[in-house]
Amino acid sequence: MDLSFLTEELEALKGKGRYRSLRRVSGPQDAEIVIEGARRLNFSSNNYLGLANHPAVVAALEEHARRYGVGSGASRLICGHMDVHAELEDAVAKLKGTEAALTFSAGYMANLGILSTLAGPDATIFSDELNHASIVDGCRLARARVEVYRHGDVSHLEDLLRQSSAARKIVVTDGVFSMDGDIAPLPGLVEAKDRHGAILVVDDAHATGVLPPHGRGTVDYFDLHGRVEIQMGTFSKALGTYGAYIGASRAMVDYFINKCRPFIFNTGLPPALAGATLAALGLLAKEPALLSSLWRNQAAFREDMAKRGRKASSPTAIVPILVGGDRETMEVSKALFDRGVFVHGIRPPTVPEGTGRLRLTLMATHTREMIGTAAARIDEALKEQGIGPDRIAQA
Ligand SMILES: *Cc1c(COP(=O)(O)O)cnc(C)c1O
User: Fold this and answer.
1) Which of 156, 225, 355, 366 is the most exposed place for a label (fewest CB within 10 A)?
2) Ligand 1 centre distance from Cα of residue 253 (Å)
3) Would the pLDDT of 209 be above 60?
4) What pLDDT score does 390 carry?
5) Whole-angstrom distance, CA of residue 17 vs CA of residue 20
6) Nearest to 132, CA basis, from 206, 219, 240
7) Residues 72, 134, 178, 236: which is the catalytic one?
C-alpha cells in the first residue's frame, strides 16, 4: 500500500503555513498554564468561568465516580440512563426555561444529531456563513439542501426563506460566534423564521455561562423564551466539564430519543461527568460573582487595548484580533508566546481566507494584572509585525 500521500499532503500544508500540531499542557486548565514546559498566561481557553478546575466540580466528579463508577456501560436507551442523567436533564431544562432537555456526548455530536434528525432530503437548512464546523458537518450528514446566509444578515435570510419551497425549513445559528465573539441577531431571526414557518436552532456553546444576566444563553439574553425550537449547547466551555445538550419541548426531546442516531447509537455520558456538570450548574446559579468577574475582565481588556489605540469591538469573552495571512498570524502568536502570553492563532479553514487572527478569550479567573500584561504584550507583538491599531477589528 502506497501511503506517500500522507507525507505529501502534510508537506503541502507546511508549505502553506497551515500545518497543525499538538501542544502539551501539564496540569489543569487555569488562567496560567504550563504549556510545552513553559509557564504562560492563558488567553485561549474556553474555560470562561474557571469551573474546569473548581474544587466543588472536581469533588462532585469524585463523589459521582464512587457512586456510579466511571463508564455508563451502554447507550441511554439500553441501560445507560442513570439517575444522574435524569437529574442533569432536569437542571438543563430549568436553566434554559424549556419543557425538557436531552444530553449528548459532545457538542459536535449534538449538532450532527440535531440537523440529521430534523432535516432530510426534503428539507432546507439555512445556515449563517460563520457557523461552527460541527453545524457545517451536521448539514452534510443531513443530506439536506443548504442555503448559507451572510453573517448575521436577517434580510438575506428572509430573501432565502421567501424563495424556498422546501417542505421543512430549519434556520441554524451560533448564539455567540465562536471565532468572532459577536452575538446572533436573535430577535430578527425569530421573526423571520416565524413568518416562514421555519424551525430555529441556536448553538449556545459560547453563550451558556457567558451572556448576562444569568449565563442562561442567547434566548434568555434577548428574553425570547418559548420562541426558539431548539437551544443547543455544550458543557465543555463555560461549565468546564464535557458533553452537550438540547433544551426543547417534551415532544421534540421524545422525537430525538426515538430518531436521533448520534443519541441512540452512542454510549451515555459518563455519570461522574454528569454529576460534575450538575455541580457546575449549581455554581453558575449560586455564585453570580463568577459571571460578573468575567464581564469585568472583558471590560478591563477592552479598556487596556483602547489605551493603546486598539479597538477590541466584540461584545463577549471572545475577542478576535485580526492579523490576516496564515504565516503572519502564527508569527504574532509565537512572538506573544515568547513574551509569556499564550494566545492561539486561528487560520483557515477554521476562519475565512485572509482573516487569520488571534482569538483571545477572557476568563473570570484572570487577575487585573494578567489582563494588563496581556494587552501590553499583544500591542508589542503586533507592532513588531508592523500591525497598527487599525487592524484590530471584527473580521
Ligand atoms: C465547541 C463548539 C461545539 C462543539 O462542542 P464540543 O462539546 O466541544 O464537541 C459546537 N458548537 C460551537 C459553536 C462550539 O464552539
Assistant:
1) 225
2) 20
3) yes
4) 64
5) 9
6) 206
7) 178
CA separation, residue 118 to residues 102, 126, 133, 170, 254 (Å) = 15, 13, 18, 8, 13
pLDDT confidence of 391, banded at 50, 70, 90? low
Q: Are both 314 and 230 inside the same structural domain?
A: no
pLDDT for position 16: 86
The pocket around ligand 1, CB under 6 angstroms, is made up of 106-108, 111, 132, 134, 174, 178, 203, 205-206, 234, 236, 244
Lowest mean pLDDT among 94-108, 180-194, 286-300, 322-336: 322-336
Please indicate whether residue 206 is annotated as part of the active site.
Answer: yes
Pair 108, 128: CB distance under 8 Å? no
- Domain with residue 298: its CATH number is 3.90.1150.10
Domain annotation covers residue 11 = no
Pair (359, 348) in one structural domain: yes
Looking at the structure, do residues 241 and 107 belong to the same domain, yes or no? yes
Distance of CA 22 to the CA centre of its chain: 20
- Burial, 58: exposed, middle or buried (Cβ in 10 Å; 0-12, 13-18, 19+)? middle
Which atom belonging to ligand 1 lies closest to the Cα atom of 242? Answer: 7
> Which of these is catalytic: 206, 236, 314, 344?
206
Domain edge (last residue) among 231, 260, 286: 286
356: β partners: 324
Nearest CA to ligand 1 atom 5: 107
Task: Give the Å distance between the CA of 134 and the centre of ligand 1.
Answer: 7
Containing structural domain, residue 359: 18-47+288-391
| 356-372: pLDDT as tens digits | 999 999 999 999 999 99
Cα–Cα distances (Å) from 195 to 114, 119, 190, in that order, read 22, 19, 9
Residue nearest to atom 8 of ligand 1 (CA): 107
Mean of pLDDT values over 288-301: 97
Which mutation among 46, 108, 131, 180 tests ligand 1's pocket best, with the greatest number of atoms within 8 A of CB? Answer: 108
Do residue 214 and residue 332 come from a single domain? no
What's the pLDDT tens digit per position in 15-55? 988 899 999 999 999 999 999 999 999 999 999 999 999 99
Residues 74 and 40 in one domain: no
Query: How many structural domains compose the chain?
Result: 2
* Ligand 1 atom with the shortest distance to the CA of 236: 7
Specify whether 40 is located in the same domain as 62: no
Q: Considering the candidates 156, 237, 344, 366, report the single residue annotated as catalytic.
A: 237
Is there a domain that residue 7 lies in? no
User: Any catalytic annotation for residue 75?
Assistant: no
First-to-last C-alpha distance (Å) of the chain: 44
- The percent of residues in the chain predicted with pLDDT above 70, rounded, is 98
pTM: 0.96
